[in-house]
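Minutes, project check-in
Item: structure for the 297-residue chain
Input as provided by the requester:
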Amino acid sequence: MHGSEVEHDFWLKNEGSKVLKIVKASMTAPLRVTRMPRELAPGGEDLIHFRLDTAALSGPFKGQITVFLNDPDLPEADLSFEGVVIPPVEVAPLPAFFVSGLRGKEASASLEIINHEAEPLRIGKIEHASERFTTNLETLRPGERYRLTLILKPDGPGGRKTEPITVATSSGVQPTLEISANTYLHERIYVFPDSVDLGAIPISQIRKNPALLGTLAQTLMVYQEEGSDFRAALRTDLPMLNLKWERGPKGDRYQATISLDPDKVNVGFYDGLLIIDTNDPASPRLTVAISGRILNQ
């Protein structure tokens, strides 16, 4: 629990024939070693005792204690510790929404607010600036457990966006909860990913191994939601690109492979577009940004 102090023992045993000396120990903050032997006789054993103050921690924690020894075969011994620090007011499973929806169809997701304090918890004002979604709060167990639901508006602004939601509580320790709202409202025709970055590649590597560019090819998917006779043609305004695409067996998508042509690349930045012409009257043309860089190395 957040704010409590965790204690644990690690046992050490000297199975060698010489005295084992413990030179020093280093550890991940805020771990603290409170007891450690200086040496162990052959066949002897003792413990290393540590404490972890969770006042400044929340969520998963991974720590390590490294013990430095005078043993040439084992100069360092690593002792690992991990766990989850539960805050006084927990947002489960994560303090974040991830909601993707199709225009014209409502989509939603829920999370729970769980009180671990002795005093009953009251939820106050829920604030967010977005017009992309609404929120709804349900009481599951008064003072103990609540369900917060994000409803993505089916006619709201399209595209992808991350915004904060602030929840006011009666907790003296956690008077506000910060929740991330990650939403994506897409049209009937959409692409994934919504942009392509081919990275930065040294020209020397391309000259030594032109086939390298094939291994760095990017895949892009074009979807028609609930489609069955989707047709698309792809082209680009970047002459140094190789572009191939294939229609899916269900007739609702295309898979495109985008790579650089080793015979046409030059040093420098490049920015352009992938242009997708479709047979869907609502979205007859889509464009996807393509970028990358050839390094003079």
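Outcome recorded: Residues 135 and 150 are 5 Å apart (CA to CA).
No further action items on this chain.
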